[in-house]
Predict the 3D structure of the following.
Amino acid sequence: MNQNKGAIKYSLDKAKLSTKSQGMYDKSKFKDYVKKSKRADQMSIQNYNAIEIIFQGYCKVGDYIKAIQQLKLMIILSPLEPCLYRNLGYLLQIKGNVEDAENALLIALSLDPFHANSHYTLSKQFDYKKNRRLWECLDSIDPTQYKTLLEKIQMCFAKATIYHRADQYTKSSKWLKIANGYKRLAKPSNLETTIVAGKSRYNLSKEIKKIKRSAGKMGSRNIFIIGMPRSGSTLLSSILSMKPNAEDIGECLVFEDALMTWLRQSKSINSLEQLATHYLESTNINSDKEFKIDKSLYNFLSIGIIINCMPEARFIHCRRHPLDNALSIYRANFSEGSTYASSIKDIAHILNLERILTTEYKKQYPHAFFTVDYERLAKDPEQQIKSLVSWLSWEWDENYLNHSKKKHTIDTASVIQVRESIHQRSVGGWKNYRELLMPMAKIFHKGTAMGSLFCCS
């Protein structure tokens, strides 16, 4: 394997690139970073380290256009570094320039055919069967020969992806198991903490519900997209954000941060209203658009709390066939947060938890929910989108059907898929992985409230 000298010190894989992934960034910190960047810039435009500092700053605040500009300057100064072309390809994927991303990643692999990160990133969008040299290269690579655990994980997921695209599902299953086995070595599952959080927040929501207070209109312009990862949520937020006065604030974790602060304080009527105010003010920091679309999926753990502090908030529940959903999660290689995703059994337990909680909250607050079934959306997108838009009391616009043509920033696991027109290719895909998913069957049927939904036949 080539050891690349002068490669980017700042790993885009390990960093949270988007401010939406961390909550809204602190403007004062951003200004401070820009000042430091300018000072570095003044040292010398030909100074690689100075340019890298500026590049890092723009990545940290989610300004990918300017980050790409700096990255191109780095490439001019160091044109033989595959890491630079890989990072360029990744950022271009995020911005929706998939053709340019492909070209950058192919250059990276022409410089180093064994570059793990480039294979991993390219495999998400490129059919390796179209390039015999690349196929034979990746097919022959032994991931155990790489020094770092991260590279081993990347290569295993890349191999699983190209075999999946080639309909070689047995090989794909093999490498998925190995890849997720490595991931479990890196980070333990957060299954237990997630289940404890779900149960404790459900009990807390029952306590809060008993508090008598005057009815408010808080949350009337806030839309929460909830559900499991890989259930169509990014697709849905992309569709809704076609509305000019609607802002997709992404997986911002703002409510989670506000809730953690509130839980450390006394739970009184006033403090509950402060929880809502904190959230609403935070989501307005970087946007003055009327509607805010919050795609922090794990807010399903806190639905009861959200409704009680923001009575007018609306929830769109993304739902998908559980086995298709589970397979997609297992294949996704989430970088952080959802560490349960490296275990088929743990995914099944979280799916049970999500279905049981959302079903219970829908019974309590039926007016607040609209359910979008992924399969129905894929089969008849126009009818399903029209129904949703009508429920939101929005005017219909044909642009809702043209979301794939919009060039906007997407930095989730669906970065490539959501750029495509809505299709049914992945519906029923779990049938190709029956043996891999078999351990989920018994766990699904343990979900007493939802057991009948999880039929594996």
Observations:
- Residues 1-27, 448-457 have pLDDT under 50 and may be disordered.
- The CA atoms of residues 219 and 313 lie 4 Å apart.
- The beta strands are 222-227, 246-250, 291-294, 314-319, 369-373.
